[in-house]
Amino acid sequence: VQLQASGGGLVQAGGSLRLSCVAFGRVFSSMVMAWFRQAPGKDRDFVAAIDASGVRTSHADSVKGRFTISRDNAKRTAYLQINSLEHADMAVVYCNLCAYWGQGTQVTVSS
Question: What is the mean pLDDT of residues 55-68?
Answer without folding.
Answer: 97
